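Structure, all two chains, one model.
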Amino acid sequence: QKEVEQNSGPLSVPEGAIASLNCTYSDRGSQSFFWYRQYSGKSPELIMSIYSNGDKEDGRFTAQLNKASQYVSLLIRDSQPSDSATYLCAVKDSNYKLTFGKGTLLTVNP
Amino acid sequence: DGGITQSPKYLFRKEGQNVTLSCEQNLNHDAMYWYRQDPGQGLRLIYYSQIVNDFQKGDIAEGYSVSREKKESFPLTVTSAQKNPTAFYLCASSITGLNSPLHFGNGTRLTVT
């Protein structure tokens, strides 16, 4: 079974700091990569998507992909208390199957 | 407003009963997915469908069944064979494509006693 691994956390950072979330995946044939944010009791919402090696920036968020190392990360700059949530890494394979990691709980302390 | 509607939000059933969870989308998406989430866990794929009248098993399909008779609808039946059905069920859809993200409904929380 294809696996997506994330540190469960919790990851605790002070307000204004950079939060770094990491994810590794087992399937070298994986095609596309997504980061979702999920607040407690709610459904996931898309934060970032990345398909090519390198960095992709969107506002305070930067996704990084290294296919050779099978590693994808999400950096959150200037972290805010409202960023406190569970962050889910998701990987799509060539059969359109999207597999999620178990998520990392982030807490941003005021 | 376009979106994905899951109903009901909360569902209670007695053990041994089959129950069907509704998922409707008006986004004109071809692909639809069902996931299950248990407390403190990520999302686990139950079934997914890329096109009408076709669907594939995910990682935890045992005890579940689906149909895809219409593009906008992808109902999930939780059968009495599912040993631990109590969970948060999430439906999602996307346009077809490897780079297409999933958009989620608000979920149905099923409790079986």
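The radius of gyration of chain B is 13 Å.
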